[in-house]
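Thread: quick sanity check before group meeting

JM: Hey all, I'm pulling together slides for Thursday and realized we never actually wrote out the predicted structure for the chain we discussed last week. Dropping the sequence here so it's in one place. If anyone has concerns about the input, flag it before I start.
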Amino acid sequence: LTFDDPIAGDLFGPNNLIAGDTSFRGGSDLGIVVTEKLLKRLGYDRSARFIYFDDNDKDVLNEGKSNFKVPIPIRAVIKNIPNRNNFLVTKFFYLSYMAHEDCVFDYNFQKKRVIFYIDADKDFAKKIQENIKANIGELSGGLSTEDITIEYEKYDNMPKPGYALSVSFNTAPEEAIVSEKLARHIEEMNLVKENNNKIFRIFDLDIAQQQPENVIYDYLSINFNKLDKIEDFSKFIIKNLNSASVKSENSIVEVDAGIVKEKNNFNYMSKMTLLISSLLIAFSILSILLFISNLLKKHLNKVKPNLGTFKAFGLSDKESKGIYMTIMLRFIFISMTISLALSYIIGKVAEMGFASQLKIEDQADYFNLFDMRTYGVIITIVLVTVIVSYYNVNKILSKTPGDLIYNR
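JM (edit): ok, ran it. Output follows.
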């Protein structure tokens, strides 16, 4: 996952984040983001600060009977990751892990300095430092503080800041077993063993080197804003990157035909749903207009004698049309306001109900009443209502007062 990937906002959002940071700490972050499911599977608690992975390096202090475990700081614990993945790392992490030389995860590359993360205050870190200094000869096999530098400093490369206690050889030993023995002896100190829930061996991640980006991806996911061209895109990939014209087998890109078919079906169903919704809206608008037209005609035919009398006494057609148009618009706006309010309430309640039943935890807004389509429908209803009402009113009022009074 790249540091600035837009999907990070959802992955580290409040509905998916369980513990830890709300993002990677830059593109060179060597931490790992894991799901709670992965922690349970590996036997870790959700409050774990590190996860240890097997780098296939034999433990030199165990006669090669077991492999060395590399401590990786847990950047965050989240609920779910798309595509059934269980952890996330940065591209820099991947490149560093795949490096065959000077790999930061190789304990042979960590032989100059032994570091411990202390999840406690400054006084406790100082106490550990003084204890190591007092026993450095025994711990290191005869070396002194002239050969080894012992210091501690603030360490912010964890979700919970603490202190990093560094035990550094002034001259790097030739064999990694020297530094590993020192690390094990420190871990076996009484003070350290009594506080093993506060003191953790960590790697010096700052020495990680930039690696060439000759990455061969196993899986590439592409997001489409619209699915209309997904079939054309699939054919383009098959023609240009998955045919006999491709010289290198490593350059072949295969398209998952099942996913293409799935997206085509989804696109078809989306368009059919949109078509049916549009037809229902058109039918609803037509029904409203027929109802308004018939209601207005019935009323005008009923009051023809009154309208003729008013016209005979000097009421102009313009004034009459204005009165009726104002009444019709008032009815329309009042009814639409009530309808929109009820629709909004019912829609929000239904959205929350479905989200609860289906256990939807993302922050997507599935019900959005106030968008351009809604505004377009409202404007259409108002315009057509005005036109139909004006036509009916004008048709009646165009007659003479005598025709209206005698209902001719």
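AS: nice. The longest strand covers residues 67-78. The radius of gyration is 37 Å.
JM: adding both to the slides.
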